[in-house]
């Protein structure tokens, strides 16, 4: 993977990165990389009260779970590739809303991860653009997601992409 330098990447370097970036829908043949990227995402959240509790058999569970997700017609996993290497992932599920409220369905985004060497080059923007297209094709006019509260990067990213905070998830450990 030939990536332009991080913070000082020139516009020219970014343009050449964009030209080599491709987003596509994952298939069952991509199961191994899907497992790898989604476990890497969990490992980056080792300080979070929920996500730090990774099970020892998580890789085996992940294979079964993500294979089922790849077979499911109401969801999609997008992969971003740069020069033949997979550099990012995003999952989107056509989800039911609360029965008494509009809209009936929305696109739920999860499992968003870009490999460290490819960050700040628009990989998430590219993945998100395809996810929006996928939602629009299904008549979904709203996207939702959760992010870890202490994840300052995620907080900035989702603000930048137009998401506002509308709820807090609270956890109480019972004795
Ligand atoms: C969050 C993450 C997916 C962003 O991916 P990325 O490809 O680097 O994001 P992009 O380059 O497309 O950035 C999109 C916008 O988000 C904002 N942004 C991205 N990274 C940022 C950072 N570190 N700090 C502040 N804002 C940031 C910027 O506004 C950026 O637009 P700009 O570059 O035009 O200014 C990536 O940092 C990552 O994988 N982090 C670890 C996993 C994680 O936290 N996942 C989120 C779970 S909800």
Description of the molecule:
Strands 1-2-3-4-5 form a five-stranded mixed beta sheet. It has a single domain, classed as Gcn5-related N-acetyltransferase (GNAT) (Aminopeptidase, 3-Layer(aba) Sandwich), CATH 3.40.630. The chain is of the alpha+beta class and 175 residues long. Helix 2 crosses helix 3. It is built from five helices and five strands, in the order αβααβββαβα. The site of coenzyme A has 19 residues, from strand 4, helix 4 and helix 5.
Write a brief structural summary.
With 175 residues, the chain is an alpha+beta fold. The protein has one domain: Gcn5-related N-acetyltransferase (GNAT) (Aminopeptidase, 3-Layer(aba) Sandwich), CATH 3.40.630. 34% of the residues lie in helices and 22% in strands.
- Total helices: the number is 5
Largest pleated sheet: 5 strands, mixed
Highest-level CATH class: Alpha Beta
Count up the domains: 1
- Name the strands of the widest sheet in spatial order: 1-2-3-4-5
Helix coverage percent: 25-40%
The average pLDDT value, as a whole number, equals 94
Question: Beta-strand percentage?
Answer: 15-25%
Task: Kindly provide the radius of gyration, computed on alpha-carbon positions and rounded to a whole number of angstroms.
Answer: 17 Å
- As for the CATH topology, it is Aminopeptidase
Bound molecules: coenzyme A
CATH superfamily: Gcn5-related N-acetyltransferase (GNAT)
Level-2 CATH architecture: 3-Layer(aba) Sandwich
Q: Report the structural category.
A: alpha+beta
Stretches where pLDDT is under 50 for at least 5 consecutive residues are none
Q: End-to-end distance, in Å? A: 49 Å
Shape: globular
The helix/strand series, from N terminus to C terminus, equals HEHHEEEHEH
Structure summary, number of beta strands: 5
């Amino acid at each position: 993977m030939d990536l332009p330098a991080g913070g000082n990447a020139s516009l020219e370097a970014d343009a050449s990165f964009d030209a080599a970036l491709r987003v596509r829908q994952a298939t069952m043949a991509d199961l191994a990389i899907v497992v790898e990227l989604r476990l890497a995402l969990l490992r980056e959240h080792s300080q979070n009260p929920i996500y730090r509790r990774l099970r020892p058999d998580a890789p085996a569970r992940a294979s079964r779970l993500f294979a089922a997700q790849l077979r499911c017609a109401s969801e999609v996993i997008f992969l971003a590739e740069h020069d033949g290497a997979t550099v990012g992932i995003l999952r989107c599920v056509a989800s039911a809303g609360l029965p008494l409220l509009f809209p009936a369905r929305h696109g739920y985004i999860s499992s968003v991860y870009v490999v460290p060497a490819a960050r700040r080059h628009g990989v998430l923007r590219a993945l998100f653009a395809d996810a929006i297209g996928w939602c629009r094709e299904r008549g979904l006019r709203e996207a939702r997601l959760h992010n870890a509260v202490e994840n300052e990067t995620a907080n900035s990213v989702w603000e930048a992409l137009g998401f506002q905070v509308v709820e807090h998830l609270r956890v109480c450990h019972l004795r």
